[in-house]
């Protein structure tokens, strides 16, 4: 079935974009929600940008030392997707901080095969135990299918995050597995540059909002926008939406309650994120790879990201990479020219990957054709 779609192949976003105004300091285009430019062409996101405030390695080591328990087999849980940041996180904890780690992986039905191989290599090389779990009754596929169909009936950039709605329930199982193994610490690998500013703006949350207020405002913004499209409120999705709100991340209400007195944090809350170091170490020490045809190592582990790229391109003529690289430019981690070059090379729509995801979710072939021509 996939072969019949070869006529689409892949399309570079830069080949189909009209010429747009781009911030003279970073790389955000004029289609970015709530963007404005000053007389010098510098965007408001640049003016309000604040560098991440890392807590430091000393503080991290204090927490880790407090978790080391000779009476227990494991010191902490590390959430592992096979992507670059989670792979680096488990490498640091095992090799550098000598933690006894239990790796926990959510078996996403749309996980890239290379991410699976990366997890297998990590387990073998670091000699760590791994627990994997999946959602019952094809819940992930059902929720994804429903939300894709709802989105294409009324395309909206603010609702693209709904494609990942089922993933937001993962922390329920992370907490369950930690408790079953008498572990009181869960560590994840998200980095501070990944939080997409324009996603917040689309839901009525300022990109420089107080982090303690973002989660609640973000949820109500998503609820407000989804109310404009009844398709998101199907019986198969409502339980997922509720659980996703309660357990969406480390700071969610349900996570805080169920994980009371449990340490829950991301490695890059404490350590400075450095792309070159991360890729160098995981490649050489863990035999880590990403599919070279994708041109980018960021967020390749879940193929739903290709669907989101398509949706953002259809509605905003940009992707999440524009936001990521804009942040790296502002923070001095990348030159503007390098960022523009990456965006030109990496902002690609991979139609074959999208078709594979749609077919696996049970979307009819004729409907897929309609979506891709829209």
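-> sequence recovered:
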């Amino acid at each position: 079935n996939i072969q019949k779609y070869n006529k689409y192949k892949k399309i570079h976003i830069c080949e189909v974009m009209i010429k747009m105004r781009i911030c003279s300091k970073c790389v955000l285009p004029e289609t970015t929600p709530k963007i404005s430019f000053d007389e010098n062409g510098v965007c408001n996101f640049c003016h309000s940008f604040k560098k991440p405030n890392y807590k430091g390695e000393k503080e991290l080591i204090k927490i880790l030392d407090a978790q080391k328990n000779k009476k227990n087999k494991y010191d902490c849980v590390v959430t592992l997707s096979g992507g670059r940041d989670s792979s680096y996180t488990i490498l640091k904890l095992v090799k550098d901080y000598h933690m006894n780690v239990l790796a926990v992986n959510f078996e996403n039905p749309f996980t890239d095969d290379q991410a699976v191989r990366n997890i297998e290599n990590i387990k073998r090389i670091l000699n760590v135990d791994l627990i994997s779990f999946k959602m019952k009754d094809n819940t992930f596929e059902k929720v994804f299918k429903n939300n894709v169909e709802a989105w294409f009936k009324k395309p909206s950039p603010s609702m693209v995050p709904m494609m990942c709605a089922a993933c937001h329930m993962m922390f329920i199982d992370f907490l369950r597995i930690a408790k079953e193994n008498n572990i009181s610490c869960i560590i994840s690998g998200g980095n501070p540059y990944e939080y997409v500013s324009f996603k917040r703006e689309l839901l009525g949350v300022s990109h420089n909002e107080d982090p303690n207020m973002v989660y609640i405002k973000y949820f109500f913004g998503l609820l407000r926008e989804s109310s404009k499209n009844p398709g998101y409120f199907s019986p198969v999705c409502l339980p997922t939406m509720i659980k996703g709100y309660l357990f969406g991340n480390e700071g969610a209400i349900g996570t805080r309650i169920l994980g009371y007195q449990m340490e829950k944090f991301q490695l890059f809350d404490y350590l400075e994120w450095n792309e070159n170091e991360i890729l160098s170490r995981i490649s050489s020490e863990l035999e880590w790879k990403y599919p070279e045809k994708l041109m980018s190592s960021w967020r390749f582990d879940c193929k739903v990201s290709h669907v989101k790229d398509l949706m953002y391109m259809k509605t905003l003529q940009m992707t999440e990479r524009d936001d990521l690289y804009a942040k790296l430019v502002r923070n001095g981690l990348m030159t503007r020219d390098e960022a523009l070059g990456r965006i030109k090379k990496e902002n690609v729509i991979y139609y074959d990957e999208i078709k594979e995801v749609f077919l696996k979710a049970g979307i009819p072939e004729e409907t897929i054709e309609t979506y891709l021509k829209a």
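The CA atoms of residues 62 and 335 lie 35 Å apart.
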